[in-house]
Amino acid sequence: MSEVKKEKQHISLSVCDEKLDIYVKSAEEEGYYREAATLINGTYGRYAEMFRGRRSERFIAAATLLDIGVKFQMEHANKETDAYNDFFSRLTSEIDEVLK
Question: Which residue, among 17, 5, 99, 95, has the nearest Cα to 52 in the 3D structure?
Answer without folding.
Answer: 17
